Amino acid sequence: MFNALNRFISRLDGDAPATTKENHGAFGFQVLRNTNLQLAVEPWFDFVVGINGRMIDDSDPRLFAQEVRNCAGSTVVLGIWSAKGQRTRALHIAVPADTGSLGLTLQWTPLSVVSNIWHVLDVPANSPADVAGLLPYSDYILGTPEGVLHGEGGLSELVEDHIGRPLQLYVYNNEYNVTREVTIHPSRDWGGEGALGCVLGYGALHRLPAPLSEPVHAPGETLFDGDSAQSQFVPTSGPPDFSNTFIPAATTASPPPPADFLVPAQMVAAQPLPAGPPRGKKKERHVHHAPVEMMDDYFKEQEKKSRELDNAPSGRLTPLPPPPKGGPPRGPPKAGASSPGKANEDED
């Protein structure tokens, strides 16, 4: 059922026009390398889709580089689209006046490449996925150092080619916000179903979520438009080689880029959540409490009135006196005793 739903949603996504605001024209400059760790840009996950308030609709890297040089000595504003949560943020970066470079390696790439991911769901015990250390529901398979995976069947074809030999995979964990390299040994003799031994999800329902360290959106805010985040750029020592800033766009005839460019970003420890605004001191409520003695007297008085209205005898009154002596016996006559009337009849 879920596979059919995923195919239906994917078909709807494919029918949508490519110039909608949500997919930013379906293309952008993917960040392949970041030489400055102080710059809040993640390789593989982040795409530059806008500059100085305008969307990038031209794949010519010279136009983008010239726009950055024009901002030398001042600040350039980049629109960054992240595959984590499919959100866009504005990044303010100070461009050094001497180099006019950002220290980023970019490539014109369709945004759909980050949709080729597989969500790890159930992981049975003693399966190849369990032995490799895959975590259920929080791990996402991004790719492999051996090449780019295309389509839903790309991973299964790769696994079939590695039956009985090790396979390296790039795996992103949402809970810890880190990417690691996992070595798994596909096998069909482990005692269960599948060569990996785990259930995988693919499609629109299994896209990369936003990290758990990000603050939760308040009611009324949009889901995919994150808040603008600003970051100050610190220039690196020495001018970088600007000729290697852009990598030519991949085509069917050209070979894929070097493997190190495809390595997703290794995230540092998650930043603590920002402290919210200080809450004002609650106004103390003054409540007048009646003394306990007055409440007891009140309840005693009401109980007394209730007893008088119900004519209920009080437990503190003297008990009833015993019956008078010499009077007629109370209760039914005892066995063997004759009644006074019967005695008179015998005397007559």
Automatic annotation (TrEMBL):
<protein>
    <submittedName>
        <fullName>GRASP55/65 PDZ-like domain-containing protein</fullName>
    </submittedName>
</protein>
<keyword id="KW-0472">Membrane</keyword>
<keyword id="KW-0333">Golgi apparatus</keyword>
<dbReference type="InterPro" id="IPR007583">
    <property type="entry name" value="GRASP55_65"/>
</dbReference>
<dbReference type="GO" id="GO:0007030">
    <property type="term" value="P:Golgi organization"/>
</dbReference>
<feature type="compositionally biased region" description="Pro residues">
    <location>
        <begin position="319"/>
        <end position="332"/>
    </location>
</feature>
<feature type="domain" description="PDZ GRASP-type">
    <location>
        <begin position="116"/>
        <end position="205"/>
    </location>
</feature>
<feature type="domain" description="PDZ GRASP-type">
    <location>
        <begin position="27"/>
        <end position="111"/>
    </location>
</feature>
<keyword id="KW-0677">Repeat</keyword>
<feature type="compositionally biased region" description="Basic and acidic residues">
    <location>
        <begin position="297"/>
        <end position="310"/>
    </location>
</feature>
<dbReference type="InterPro" id="IPR036034">
    <property type="entry name" value="PDZ_sf"/>
</dbReference>
<dbReference type="Pfam" id="PF04495">
    <property type="entry name" value="GRASP55_65"/>
</dbReference>
<dbReference type="InterPro" id="IPR024958">
    <property type="entry name" value="GRASP_PDZ"/>
</dbReference>
<feature type="region of interest" description="Disordered">
    <location>
        <begin position="218"/>
        <end position="259"/>
    </location>
</feature>
<feature type="region of interest" description="Disordered">
    <location>
        <begin position="293"/>
        <end position="348"/>
    </location>
</feature>
<feature type="compositionally biased region" description="Low complexity">
    <location>
        <begin position="333"/>
        <end position="342"/>
    </location>
</feature>
<dbReference type="GO" id="GO:0000139">
    <property type="term" value="C:Golgi membrane"/>
</dbReference>
